[in-house]
Design a protein that fits this description.
about 260 residues, alpha/beta, globular, UDP-N-acetylmuramoyl-L-alanine:D-glutamate ligase
């Protein structure tokens, strides 16, 4: 383990504890780094729905960012739910000053339940200001479709979309294929080509927070000094094991267990 390593998440709070800030902090701890956080919004949600969202004032988001980056040895950063344009602009302004720290951008557009987690005008700001700063962008299938402006139905579509997005933004993309039928196949598109990470799908587990957990694990391993491809491989193993060894929340409900290694 890299001593004195901290990872920072900039995201929304999930009152249910399965996604967002809560999932990220659990993942950082489970993957061996100190976790710090900047909260962009407070949500009222559970496994079925998001019933309310309250954005944090942009100046408070900025104050949180500066306090953490000035006071802790942050080795990698991830962003999740940023919600509106003003928050994205503030986050981009600050992170431009820390361009030497690897940044993982999880372009969170909607919750698994379907609830939208970003204002429509904010997506343009995310593309223009934040994606070019990234060491990695981690869209799932619906997010990749939005960024590409077309539907993606098969793994080859995902591959072509990843290559297209890499050419547009000039940064690596991890195209998450969990929404496709068949195996859970993710494609890392970078300057070396396309690297495939595949596992069998895990059934019977509520996958709420799986995207946050995956991107947070990549961030943790980058903070520990791993190369991008090795960090993605380690994160893929972590999220797969977290799904295969779930937490039994109540009868009939199994959820991701971020601390499966301790059992």
């Amino acid at each position: 383990m890299l001593k004195h390593a901290a990872a920072l998440t900039v995201a929304g709070s999930d009152s249910g504890g399965g996604a967002g800030i809560q999932a990220d902090i659990k993942t950082f701890s489970a993957c061996g780094v100190y976790g710090a956080s900047v909260i962009t919004a407070v949500t009222a949600q559970n496994l079925e729905r998001v019933s309310a969202i309250q954005a944090i004032a942009p100046q408070v988001v900025e104050a949180q960012l500066r306090a953490v980056l000035e006071g802790y040895p942050v080795k990698a950063i991830k962003t999740g739910m940023l919600f509106n344009r003003d928050i994205i602009e503030v986050v981009a302004d600050v992170l431009e000053e820390y361009a030497y720290i690897p940044l993982v951008v999880d372009p969170v557009f909607a919750a698994t339940s379907g609830s939208r987690l970003i204002k429509p005008r904010a997506i343009h700001a995310l593309s223009e200001r934040l994606l070019p700063l990234a060491a990695l962008v981690t869209p799932n299938l619906p997010e990749a479709e939005f960024l590409c402006g077309r539907e993606l139905h098969a793994l080859e579509d995902l591959r072509e979309a990843g290559q297209e997005l890499y050419e547009i933004f000039k940064v690596p993309f991890l195209m998450k294929g969990g929404h496709l039928p068949g195996r859970a196949v993710d494609l890392l598109v970078d300057g070396r080509g396309v690297k495939t990470y595949a596992t069998d799908l895990v059934h019977g587990v509520n996958s709420h927070g799986s995207g946050c957990t995956f991107s947070a694990a990549v961030t943790a391993y980058l903070a520990r000094g791993r190369s991008l491809r090795i960090a993605v491989a380690a994160a893929k193993s972590f999220i797969t094991a977290s799904l295969r060894r779930p937490h039994y929340l109540r009868p009939g409900t199994r959820v991701i267990d971020h601390f499966h290694r301790r059992r």
